[in-house]
Specification:
Length: about 625
């Protein structure tokens, strides 16, 4: 299937039935001074909602510690305590017991509006600034289904190989909590919009070794529902509530109980996140809180495969892949010890905190009866036409599995690198990679597809993945921890044009790797002076082109470097293993003696090797 760019995918509209505004949320962009050709301006979605704006008071906002930092801090704490977690590889199975896991994933849809009000979805704005009357269950307000929200929901369901239901309905699920002003959540229970999907997990997705060649996980159903308000705990028994999130459209993806190993549970959630990002159904992942997983865990003795599944417990709101794996292991072990000591597993909802080793009871599990499900009388059934489904199916583009295969075949990347490229930055890094590849191909000209250019493309993969990764791991530059990838494959800190220029010159050996890396840092740190419009200009003005030594100059240098090093040179006579270390020592001497900026270490190594073999060693032998 031809690749369709994310930018092109935003044209989801069908015969004008959907408004462009209510559909996909555009990403805010900040333009760096270095970008000569500014990116297209952000499209803003104006809400028609009668939004209630609450003036923010002057109280300080609670300090938000990003999840990534929480995880790192916890790992550090554990390390300091000498409690380095044992490797999970051997913690996948407990002899005599079979584990069963079913997962519910709640994912925020990539929409401009809420599910039943035209208030805009917002994630970083002031608390309680995007709230319509209906979101607060103000008497007299009514839900108005925002049909554009169906588009990302349907794309998610198609990516998960589900059957789309022509008719689906909304139900009320009752429970009382401050985060749900109406006292019920509108969800789909009796008739969800998608059923009977499946995802194939392969070994490269990180499933447990026990799953062998992979495993097929069935998706029971996907339903649309409302998110709840966000609670911000304060010191004392005080809770602040941000209603911006209330009513934001979610999909709940419910699997069959098809998973039997902790690592496979984590691999499943990771794969769903990658898929949802790839089809633009969701734009943020677990770390940003856009995706949350509940895992249902049960165990039964493995000696009787015909026995019914054990009693499940549910661990709610897991917010990292590691938490999924760790919580499943902890809950499996807890249930086994309860059963082994003659007790019974209770149906309950449990919690998990980062860094813990045990799940904890939150409450007894609500059953269907507690929820008093009933069809929502204010909402008509949702009728989805086959024309819409077919239209969206045609626009799906290449899914991540196919993209990973393509990266492996076309550029000979390792599966690990290919997967990382596709998974990083919610799918934005791979868009950037393709942009860099396109720019490079343009510079290579009409024969850009010929195998001679493969090393150039491989260089691009390596740099987009590893060299760019190194930029943000530099702790000294606090302000620059984010590369700023955008949806349409641009990078605010390292524009694709600049990177492709650097890579082209490096591939052509017109600059050294050292200069290339220095240039990358300069671009990233915005240290390229404004008067240099292109990388070429920097190289010209700063005299950084690689003016390589001639063949004769290399040979001369090799002799000079070996002079007085007879002991070292002797090592090349009758060796058991080729003395590579000694060779590199001599190359080091060449670089020290010669003009470093004119030497390519690889070329120096080849010349030194040849000079040793053909001239110096025979001389010593004599
Ligand atoms: N015995 C079992 N062991 C492990 N998982 C199970 C078992 N039985 C059911 N499951 C899984 O539990 C999950 C049930 O999710 P579902 O949304 O249908 O119900 P729920 O958890 O009661 O609802 P909610 O949490 O949304 O209120 C499914 O993923 C299913 O595969
Ligand atoms: Mg559920
Ligand atoms: Mg559940």
């Amino acid at each position: 299937m031809p690749r369709i760019r994310a930018a092109a995918l935003s044209r989801y509209l069908l015969h004008g039935q959907f408004s462009a505004r209510g559909c996909l949320r555009a990403q805010p962009r900040i333009l760096p001074p270095i970008l000569r050709n500014p990116l297209p301006a952000t499209t803003t979605c104006f809400s028609q909602a009668r939004a209630i704006h609450v003036e923010s008071n002057n109280a300080p906002l609670p300090v938000h510690v990003p999840l990534r930092k929480q995880l790192k801090d916890e790992a550090k704490k554990q390390k300091a305590l000498g409690k380095k977690k044992k490797k999970n590889a051997n913690n996948q199975v407990v002899d005599g017991w079979e584990l069963t896991v079913g997962i519910e994933i709640h994912a925020q849809l990539n929409t401009a509006k809420k599910l039943f009000s035209a208030a805009t979805t917002s994630f970083n704005d002031d608390p309680n600034s995007h709230v319509a009357y209906f979101d607060l269950a103000t008497p007299g307000s009514q839900p108005i289904f925002q049909k554009e929200t169906l588009i990302p929901a349907l794309r998610a369901a198609l990516a998960l190989n589900c059957d789309i239901q022509n008719t689906s309905r909304f139900d009320r699920k009752h429970y009382f909590h401050w985060d749900q002003p109406s006292g019920y959540q509108i969800t789909q229970y009796y008739e969800p919009f998608a059923r009977d999907g499946r995802i194939a997990l392969k070994p490269r997705d990180g499933v447990a070794a026990e799953d062998g060649d992979g495993v097929l996980v069935g998706i029971k159903q996907i339903q649309m529902e409302q998110d709840t308000a966000k609670t911000l705990a304060q010191p004392g028994d005080v809770h602040w509530i941000d209603f911006n999130r209330v009513g934001v459209p979610l999909i709940e993806i419910i699997t069959l109980p098809d998973i039997h190993y902790p690592a496979t549970a984590a691999a499943f959630v990771r794969k769903v996140q990658i898929l949802l990002n790839a089809v633009d159904a969701c734009v943020s992942g677990m770390e940003a809180g856009g995706l949350r997983a509940d895992v249902n865990v049960s165990v039964r003795r493995s000696d009787d495969p015909s026995a019914p599944l054990g009693q499940r417990t549910e661990i709610k709101n897991l917010s990292s892949f590691k938490a999924v794996e760790d919580a499943v292991i902890a809950e499996r072990d807890r249930q086994i010890s309860v059963l082994e000591s003659g007790g019974a597993v209770e149906s309950e909802t449990r919690g998990w905190s980062i860094g813990s080793t045990e799940t904890r009871r939150l409450r007894g599990k609500e059953g269907e009866v507690d929820y008093r499900y009933m069809p929502d009388p204010d909402l008509a059934p949702v009728i989805i036409g086959d024309d819409l489904v077919n239209h969206l199916r045609q626009g799906m583009g290449e899914l991540p599995d196919a993209e990973v295969d393509e990266l492996i075949q076309r550029f000979e990347l390792t599966p690990k690198d290919a997967l990382s490229l596709v998974a990083l930055d919610e799918g934005k890094r791979i868009e950037y990679f393709w942009n860099v590849i396109d720019l490079l191909a343009k510079r290579f000209g009409p024969s850009a597809k010929s195998p001679e250019y493969l090393p150039g493309y491989q260089l691009a993969a390596n740099w987009v993945l590893h060299e760019l990764g190194r930029l943000t791991s530099d702790r000294t530059e606090d302000a620059a921890q984010d590369l700023g990838f955008t949806e349409d494959g641009e990078c605010l800190r390292v524009p694709a044009q600049h990177l492709s220029d650097i890579l082209l010159y490096l591939y052509q050996r017109r600059i050294t790797a050292k200069v290339a890396k220095e240039l990358l840092w300069a671009v990233f740190r915005r240290r390229i002076p404004d008067e240099y419009p292109t990388i070429e200009a920097v190289l010209d003005e700063e005299n950084l082109w690689f003016n390589e030594l001639s063949e004769d100059e290399y040979v001369e240098l090799a002799y000079a470097a070996a002079e007085g090093q007879d002991e070292v040179v002797k090592q090349f006579v009758d060796y058991k293993h080729y003395p590579q270390g000694k060779l590199m020592f001599l190359v080091g001497q060449m670089i020290r003696l010669g003009a470093e900026e004119r030497i390519d270490p690889k070329a120096a190594e080849m010349v030194m090797k040849r000079v040793l073999k053909e001239n110096l060693v025979p001389a010593i032998k004599d």
